[in-house]
Amino acid sequence: MTTWFHSWRAAVRIARRDAWRSKGRSFLVLAMIALPILGVSALDLTLRSAELTPAQRVERTLGAADARFSDARTGGVAILQDPEGEQNTPAGDYYSPGTSWPDGPTDVTKSIPAGSTVLTDSSGTAKLTTTHGLLQTEVRELAAADPLTRGIMRLQEGRFPEKNDEIAATTRFLESSGLSVGSTLTARGFDRTYVISGSYELPSDLTAQQVNALPGAFLAPYAKAVEKAGLPKPDVSTTYLVKKAGGFTWNMVQAINVKGVLVTSRVVVLDPPADSEVPLYQRKDWAKNSGGADAAALAAVGTVVGLAMLEICLLAGPAFAVGARRSRRQLGLVGANGGARSHIRAIVLSGGLVIGVAAALVGIVLALVLTFALRPLLEDYVGQRFGGFTVRPLELLAIAALAVLTGLLSAVIPAVTASRQTVLASLTGRRGVRRSNRVLPLIGFGAVLLGAAIALYGSVVSDQFVLVAGGSAIAELGVVAMTPALVGLFGRASRWLPLSPRLALRDAVRNRGRTAPAVAAVLAAVAGTVAVSTYAASRDAQSLAEYRASLPYGAGAALVTEEGGRDVPAVRDAVQRTLPVDVRADVFRIVVGKPGCAPYGEGEGCGRFDVVIPPANECPLWAVAPDGSDVVEKYTKEQRRALAKDWRCLSHDGNGLYVEEGLLVADAPLLKVLGIDDPDAAKALADGKLLSFHRPQVDRNGTVGIKLITDPKAADRAVEQNKPVPGELKSFPAYQVPGSPDSYGVESVLSPAAAKAAGLTTVPLGAVFSTDRMPSSEQRQRLDAEIAKLGSNVELTVEQGWVDENGLVLLALTVFAGLVTIGAAGIATGLAQADAEADLKTLAAVGAPPRVRRMLSGFQCGVVAAMGVVLGSAAGVLPAVGLRLTEEREQMRSYQEALDQGWVGVGDAPPYVPIVVPWETLAALLVAVPLGAALLAALVTRSRGALARRAAH
After folding, report:
1. Residues 176, 182, 183, CA angle at the centre, nearest 5°?
2. Beta carbons of 917 and 532 less than 8 angstroms apart
3. What is the DSSP letter of 917?
4. Which of 387, 518, 559, 662 is 20 to 30 A removed from 274 (C-alpha atoms)?
5. CA–CA gap between residue 111 and residue 239 (Å, rounded)
6. DSSP letter at 952?
7. Residue (of 624, 589, 585, 587) closest to 606 by Cα position
8. Could you give the 3-state DSSP secondary structure of residue 579?
9. How is the chain split among helix, strand and coil, in percent rounded to 5?
10. pLDDT exceeding 90 applies to what percent of the chain?
11. How far is CA 149 from CA 62, 245, 433, 885, 935, in A?
């Protein structure tokens, strides 16, 4: 034991001195290992620091209160909830056909125990004036200065409101609005002025744009002002912070749930009950996260870490081989003085140990320093304040162990190779000839066959992506193991090459021990790049084939559905001024109830309208049975497939404008913008007819019915009970546009005059416009700035056609693979120069010009890069093809199931899953990268070698 310890201590000392002597090479290997360690350690520190403890989460949610009471919106019906108070569902069975889902407010105050301390916490929205215009902002009414709220908001400057004419604002709101503490602000349509008394932040949401007022100081009077202007008052949600002696136990929470109230309890969150005691988790229709996704994520992380370690080992291995080769005389002296082969191996392995330990220390220390120093920036990026600076020593030790293990693994092959050299060869500098290992290529070939078989099974028989990925990884490792043999095959091409590349290729083949690791490193990096590039290019081709334009190319739409279209004239004017508009069609929408009502009957005193489908035109597959059962079950698969192609069952694919019931109120310019060239359609619209692009809505009399529903809740109940929907029916003569023109989501068009004549109330919706050229980025930015001043929620669309979103990713991958290739080839070239110094002197002695040295160095680097790129390109295609075949089987199976259910119509094409090879990326890798590596190596190589001292014999 003592002998072993002393021998390793001596080996470590020798390795440490050698590393210090060769600072450049040591720094290179240390950087390769330390950079990933720095990234992983910083990520671990950031995630752990951002991970809040239950106590910290409770403090940010409840402050100093014991519970938060919320309305579950079930109309007082009993609910079941999880211990955290984040999920809930009605306790009864409301999934049966014909059963109405409970909905409606609950009086939460009746469930609060007597004698409790209560604070209201209400939230709504308002458009507040800023230095730039208007900004839609959350308004929160909470007595933030009360000790009960401590921890929910953190005061940054000034103080929280103490008067009804004061508000505080988040720092993000002040940054966006251009205001500051002491400024005044008002709300649109509200005559009260408020003074900003302070700024604060929400620790769990640093991006929140919010203002805080005292309870009753803003939302109630603002709602009255808005209603007075004829607009629906904003929705306000109210919760209650409750403090009670002893808190609220799980049994108390369940008792309160019976009243339809959701409770977040401090006691329950800090000491949650077992899953068996949570009724919500016992329901058959409720699935709790089983952790399968976490296991898959861990497997993916493990695979990435393993491949990263392999890549580092392949890159660092030749560097250790360079050190061992340059220290062969020193190692020979160790053997000459009685050192065994194990001592030689220990010295070279100690080099990996020293570099690994140093890389671990440097990476982790830098991660600690940088994470601590950059904590404010990291918190802003994450969007929440950390609970603290959390350091988990065991996790950092595990990361450090990875660094040490990577260093040791990188030095294993150089250590074994150095120990096999004889003492005489080491001292004289002679290179013995050693036959290559014949077992390793056979093992690699078997791994290639096994991996390919697994990937093929996963892509053709099974639907498991894991099998494809795992099989591809095994096959890639097999190719890495076969690299020495494959390098030998490349050598047969040397007979057709000129002198310098022939010497470079033969030298690479003759010294496979140093060539193979570098080629394997390039292979691994290029294979990953080619796999991702092929997959991304294939997905792009599929995305392009499946792309459906929302409007004709260059056309656009700017729609506003809030506040009865109050800002629509300003939006139309901004569009006209900033964009190269050719034709502009002003569009309107039908409103039922107050003029300021939102679409689909949202808001108090608001209704909606339905475009009626005549019973004779209803799709049999979509009908509702009197007992609420699914009528699809009574048809066979063949009948469903046939009915799916029936014209009554045709539906739009969902692309284009998303407007209520697909109906727009507009004049003929809309047809020109949509690219519909039909004079009869324009004439029918001018004559007061309704244009129909959806055949099922036209009855046998050639009319279309629009039902005005003033009571949406009664209409919903009627639908659930399979009864006629109450409402006033308006009928319009219709013109069915012939053929199947693309109307981009619009199913009906009615002229404003016809709508007015029928007694329909319409409000401005926005504008749909065509352009004479594609708007530039600057024009879009100016329009966005104009709209931002209005503070309105504008749905802005400009059709630019299909956009390649993966182009930058492919470029980044190509650059990454190129850098790795140049780095690995450069390391191999350095090792080759150390080995070939005698040959270069011989060439110089026989009259070779100095440029031969540069050319030989360049070709040595280019040969390694070319071999690795060629092998990596071939190996990288397999996983991409396997994944695409798996996706094709999945999508085709889903398509066939949809056909059997009658969900696929005549216009739905089978899935198109192409396999596309990214030739541009391959060309850059196969040509540009090796050529660049060769030129770079030639440029940095000296034409004349250093003078060597005469060796004593």
Report:
1. 50
2. no
3. -
4. 387
5. 12
6. P
7. 589
8. coil
9. 55, 15, 30
10. 17
11. 7, 17, 79, 56, 67
- CA–CA separation, 94 vs 524, rounded Å? 55
CA distances from 516 to 339, 420, 816 (A): 29, 18, 20
Q: What is the DSSP letter of 132?
A: S
pLDDT for 778 = 83
**Closest to 813 (Cα-Cα) out of 930, 921, 918:** 921
Give me the phi and psi of 447, to 5 degrees please.
-65, -35
Close Cβ partners of 27 (under 8 Å, ≥ 6 residues apart) = none
CB 519 within 8 A of CB 509: no
Residues 536, 888 contacting (CB under 8 angstroms):
no
Q: Residue 177: helix, strand or coil by DSSP?
A: helix
pLDDT of residue 304: 58
Amino acid at 241: L
Count of CA atoms in the C-beta half-sphere (13 A) of 200: 25
- Pull the structure tokens for residue 699: 């009855």
CB-based contacts of 532, cutoff 8 Å, min separation 6: 809, 813, 880
What type of residue is 614?
A: P
In angstroms, the CA 528 to CA 629 distance is 51
Ordered DSSP codes for 188-243 = TT----EEEEEEEEBTTBTT--EEEE-TTSSHHHHHHHHHHTTSPPPP-EEEEEEE
DSSP class of residue 606 equals B
**Contact partners, residue 598, CB within 8 Å, separation at least 6:** 232, 561, 562, 606
Task: Report the greatest alpha carbon distance in the chain.
Answer: 114
Side chain identity, residue 258:
V
What is the C-alpha separation between 536 and 542, in angstroms, rounded? 10
CB 860 within 8 A of CB 513: no
Sign of CA dihedral 411, 417, 422, 427: negative
Q: Which amino acid appears at position 262 of this protein? A: L
Rounded CA separation 743/698 (Å): 17
Q: Rounded to whole angstroms, how far apart are CA atoms 650 and 619?
A: 8
Q: Between helices 637-644 and 851-901, what is the axis angle to 10°?
A: 110
Closest by CA position to 631, among listed 901, 276, 834, 262: 901
d(CA 822, CA 812): 15
Distance between CA 705 and CA 610 in Å, rounded?
Answer: 8
Residues 598/803, Cβ–Cβ less than 8 Å: no
CA angle, corner 33, sides to 31 and 36, nearest 5? 100
Q: Are 702 and 733 in contact (CB under 8 A)?
A: yes
C-alpha 611/C-alpha 691 separation (Å) is 13
CA distance 556 to 581: 9
Contact 468, 455 (CB under 8 A): yes
Q: From 220, 187, 229, 191, select the one nearest 594 (Cα to Cα).
A: 229
**3-state DSSP call for residue 664?**
strand
∠ Cα 692 694 697 (to 5°): 85
Is the pLDDT at 924 greater than 90? The verdict is no
Residue 287 CB contacts under 8 Å (≥ 6 apart), including other chains: none
Show Cβ contacts of residue 2 under 8 Å, excluding neighbours closer than 6 positions.
none
Q: What's the CA gap between 82 and 274, in Å, rounded?
A: 11
- Residues pairing with 749 in the sheet: 664, 691
Q: Which amino acid is at 492?
A: R
104 φ, ψ (degrees, to nearest 5): 135, 165
**849-902 confidence digits (pLDDT tens):** 767 767 777 777 777 778 878 888 887 787 788 778 888 888 888 888 777 776
Token reading at 537: 């290019």
Please write the tens of the pLDDT for every residue from 687-719. 888 988 888 888 888 899 998 888 888 888 777
Cα 785 off chain centre by: 27
Instruction: Tell me the per-residue pLDDT of 768-821, one tens digit each, with 9 for 90 and over.
Output: 998 988 888 788 878 887 887 777 778 888 888 887 766 666 666 667 666 666
d(C-alpha 454, C-alpha 470), whole Å: 8
